[in-house]
MmyB-like transcription regulator ligand binding domain-containing protein (Mycobacterium stomatepiae), 192 residues
Amino acid sequence: MLDRLANNPVAVYDATWTLLIANAPYDALMGPTTNWRGIERNGVWRNLIGPGTRAVQTSEERAALQAGLVADLRVTASRYPADQRLKQLIRELSAQSPRFVELWDAGSPELHHDVGRRKVIDHPDVGRIALDCDTLVVAGDNLRIMIFTAEPDTEDAERLGLAIVLGTQTFAEQVIYSRNAVDVIFILGALS
């Protein structure tokens, strides 16, 4: 499926909002995800404790997002009460975030919804980009597929395209640089 959506930023999350995979356009739009480890890959943590995202939000939108993510996690915990990884995530979030504890204890029934929602992404190289964000839930698999699209033939579509080109060029340069560094280390190792 990611291959079919290769020109659109796409990320796949599990039921706990932990990022499983993101394509190159997503990394170009939202920033590189490949170096995220452990809890850094969790969307609840990123939005309550961590650096957040490039999405521009009012304080009300941010509060609603946080409440929805915690409500989603609460539903997931009720579905999988024996999941040790999930229990550990909840313990870590509780220990690090009073806001998480407040939302968890409140038991908000409002789940997170990103179907047909407009988001403005503040990209460091091309500025603000208004995009449609759809989060599709795969029934039975507990996967959430987040897809960003731009209205065709608009300035936002052009900015998204530019962000993707710039992001993939930067990624390619990093791979070439890393590969050259590995080659140099390999050559130096062979000489010693």
